């Protein structure tokens, strides 16, 4: 049975610069989907971003945190192309990109207790009720994400859809491996996408969770 995916691959327009980046820069900064586990070549804290879009946030955070290594996962080709161009332009040595379904990347390429943080910024809201099953945040994915975090590792999610924020709070709150955290791994910069949302009056909510240091007592 085909799994329910959190995205629909739109054809969309790929600009010549994005296409060039996919051809020429992917071999430099990209990682192929495989069964091989992700590691930081220099043993730095490893942060996985789910659905990096055009990569604006990825770049800002990676620039501000040269002490950490970032892996951005995105399925949309033009977004991957833009991010690759930005990595090259900024001369960043701490960002790699995977063009694949992030759920499968978590399952196949991320070892348990290996991540310092997971970033999930403005995942597709799937606003229609009959599409809610496509939302990325579900009890199973919350457990999957929590398992991949090292103890004390941060799960930072953001959304401008109030009912999705409530769903996230409920789902993450019910995950025994997670507990609320005061702050994220990194400050999230305000993006163009977000300022548009703010102009339209969409309240933005950030959720910070932390993997518990010790296993919760059995209930
Ligand atoms: C609404 S956009 C937000 C992009 C970016 N995080 C931002 O804040 O601007 C959501 C992105 O998640 C990507 N996406 C959705 N499901 C995904 C999945 N399972 N794996 C990888 N990317 C996914 C979509 O292609 C889209 O680019």
List the helices and strands and how they pair.
Layout: H1 16-29, E1 30-31, E2 46-50, H2 56-64, E3 69-73, H3 77-90, E4 95-98, H4 102-109, E5 115-121, H5 139-148, E6 149-159, H6 162-173, E7 178-180, H7 192-199, E8 205-211
Parallel strand pairs: 1-4, 2-3, 2-5, 3-4, 5-6
Antiparallel strand pairs: 6-8, 7-8
This protein binds S-adenosylmethionine.
Describe the protein's architecture and organization.
The chain is α/β, with parallel strands linked by helices. The protein has a single domain, classed as Rossmann fold, CATH 3.40.50.150. The chain has seven helices and eight strands. It has helices spanning about 15-30, 55-65, 75-90, 100-110, 140-150, 160-175, 190-200; strands at about 30, 45-50, 70-75, 95-100, 115-120, 150-160, 180, 205-210. Strands 1-4-3-2-5-6-8-7 form an eight-stranded mixed sheet, sandwiched between helices. Strand 5, helix 5 and strand 6 (about 150-160) form a beta-alpha-beta unit. The protein starts with 15 loop residues before the first helix and ends in an 8-residue tail after the last strand. S-adenosylmethionine binds next to helix 4.
CATH class: Alpha Beta
Which series of helices and strands comes N to C?
HEEHEHEHEHEHEHE
**Count of separate DSSP helical elements:** 7
- Would you give the CATH topology? Rossmann fold
> What's the mean pLDDT score?
94
Sequence stretches where pLDDT stays below 50 over 5 or more residues = none
Shape: globular
Bound compounds, please?
A: S-adenosylmethionine
* Adjacency order of strands in the biggest sheet: 1-4-3-2-5-6-8-7
**Strand residue percentage:** 15-25%
């Amino acid at each position: 049975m085909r799994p329910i995916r959190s995205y629909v691959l739109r054809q969309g327009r790929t600009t010549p610069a994005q296409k060039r980046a996919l051809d020429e820069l992917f071999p430099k900064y990209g990682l192929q989907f495989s069964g091989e586990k992700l590691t930081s070549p220099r043993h730095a804290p490893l942060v996985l971003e789910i659905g990096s879009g055009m990569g604006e946030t990825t770049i800002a955070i990676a620039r501000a945190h040269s002490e950490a290594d970032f892996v951005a996962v995105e399925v949309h080709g033009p977004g991957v192309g833009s991010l690759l161009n930005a990595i090259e332009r900024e001369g960043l040595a701490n960002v790699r990109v995977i063009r694949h379904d992030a759920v499968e990347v978590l399952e196949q390429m991320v070892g348990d207790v290996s991540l310092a943080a997971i970033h999930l910024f403005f995942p597709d809201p799937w606003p229609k009720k009959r599409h809610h099953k496509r939302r990325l945040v579900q009890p199973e994915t919350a457990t999957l994400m929590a398992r991949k975090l090292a103890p004390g590792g941060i799960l930072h999610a953001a959304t401008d859809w109030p009912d999705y924020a409530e769903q996230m709070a409920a789902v993450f709150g019910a995950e025994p491996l997670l507990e609320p955290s005061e702050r994220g791994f990194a400050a999230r910069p305000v993006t163009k996408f977000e300022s548009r949302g703010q102009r339209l009056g969409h309240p933005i909510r950030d959720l910070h969770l932390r993997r518990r240091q010790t296993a919760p007592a059995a209930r």
